[in-house]
From TrEMBL:
SUPFAM superfamilies: Thioesterase/thiol ester dehydrase-isomerase. The lineage of its organism: Eukaryota, Fungi, Dikarya, Ascomycota, Pezizomycotina. Belongs to the thioesterase PaaI family. Signal peptide: none annotated. Residues 79-153 form the Thioesterase domain. One of its GO terms (molecular function) is fatty acyl-CoA hydrolase activity. InterPro entries: ACOT13, HotDog_dom_sf, Thioestr_dom. This is Thioesterase domain-containing protein.
Length: 172
């Protein structure tokens, strides 16, 4: 492993540790609201890996089971639930490049384009891998791929365009 690869691996390990700490220490999904629709999903989700990338192309890898609450009437993971999961996970990918004055607030959605390819059933373990494709000071595009862990089959993909909501600083 080259020095550059070693440095990147250390940065990624530190990023993963920082993100896991942040996700565990904050009350991100209110425990006081039993109706919060992502509360149970979030409790059973693991952040497997995080990378800050070389050129602001950070990525995350999430792992979670398909839960009964997110099934449609034919007992498959509902499209709306998939869109919500893509929205949350792709949005968090901005954490990999955020710094003071740059994507501190993670932004807000402009568009979320979904493609549904296969079904997922209750109890199956899924992986949602996200990657920043393009990012600037005002807009970003993050891609997500949801796949079945057991066979690698792609369940759905997303393309999430986001707008930076950071408070602009006055120019001196």
């Amino acid at each position: 492993m080259s020095d550059l690869e070693t440095k990147q691996a250390k940065r990624d390990a530190a990023l993963l540790k920082r993100m896991r700490s942040h996700l565990q220490s904050k009350d991100l999904i209110s425990r006081h609201d039993p109706n919060q629709y992502l509360q149970r999903w979030f409790a059973e989700t693991t952040l497997v890996s995080a990378s800050s990338g070389q050129n602001s192309d950070g990525s995350l890898d999430w792992r979670f089971p398909v839960q009964k609450e997110y099934l449609n009437f034919v007992h498959q993971l509902a499209g709306g639930a998939q869109a919500a999961l893509h929205d949350v996970c792709t949005g968090w990918t901005l954490f990999t490049v955020a710094k003071p004055g740059y994507w501190e607030s993670f932004g807000s959605s402009r568009t979320l384009n979904m493609s549904y390819l296969k079904i997922a059933k209750e109890g199956e373990i899924l992986r949602l891998r996200t990657k920043i494709v393009s990012i600037g000071s005002r807009v970003a595009m993050i891609r997500g791929e949801l796949s079945r862990e057991s066979d690698g089959q792609l369940i759905s993909t997303s393309e999430h365009h986001m707008h930076n909501n950071d408070v602009s600083r006055p120019k001196l």
